[in-house]
Fold:
Amino acid sequence: MKPSHRPARFAVAFLSIFFLAAVASAQPKSFEYRYFKSNIQDIIAQIPSPPADDSVAGMADLETLLQLQKDRTPEQVERAKRVNTHTARNVMGMGAQAFGPWFSEKNLPRTAQILREINMERHYIGITVKNHWNRPRPFVRDPRIQPCLRRPGESSYPSGHTAASAAWAGVLAAAMPEYKEPLFEEVRETMWGRVLAGVHFPTDTIAGRKLGFLIADEMLKTQVTQDAVREMRAEILAFIKANPDAITPPKH
Structure:
C-alpha cells in the first residue's frame, strides 16, 4: 500500500501558517513596494505547479536527491554551504562570486543598500508564492533525505535562495552587462547547491530561477529601478577606475 503523505503535508501547512504570521508581524506597517509595481498573482500564473509526488517528474525529483546524497562528497558539501549564505544578511555575497572579493558593502555601500531593498521586496513576493503551493521539503516528504545543512522551516517551492540569486543577477546584469555571464553562472551554482544540500528538489530550483528573473524583469520596468541601476553602475565603475589593480576581468 502506498504510504500517505497527508501528515507531512499537514505539518508543512501548519508550520507555514506560523512562518507567514512571523513574516507579516516583522513587515513594517508602512511598508510599500517601491521597485516592484506588478501584480503578484500575475507572477504566480507564470510559474508551473510543482509536480505531484507520484508523477514521473515528482519521482525523478526524489530519486535525484537520493542518488546525490549517496554520492555526495566533502567538496560538494562545501559548495552547498557557500550558496547557503546567499541570504538577506549577505546581499553582496552572490555578486562577490561573480565580480570578485572587491564587490563588498564597504566598497559599494549604495549598491548594497539597493540590493537589500530589492531583496526585501523579493522576499515578501517569494513568501506569497511559496504559500500558494505549500510543497513539503524533500526531508519531510521522505525521511531518507538527510540534508547536509540546517533544515529550513518554510515550504519548498519555489527555492527562495535561487529566487534571490536570480533577482540580484537580473538587476546587476542590467547595471553591469559586462558581468552577465558570471552572474548567471552563480545563479546556476545556487540552484545546484540547494539540490546538493538536500533542502530542495530540482524542480524547486528551476521555479526559483524563473521567479527571481520574473521579479527582476518586472522591477526593471519601473523608473525607480532604472534610476537605481544607474546609481549602481556609477558607483561600481567609479570603484573600478580608482582601484584597477583589485579588479578581476569578467569571465566570458
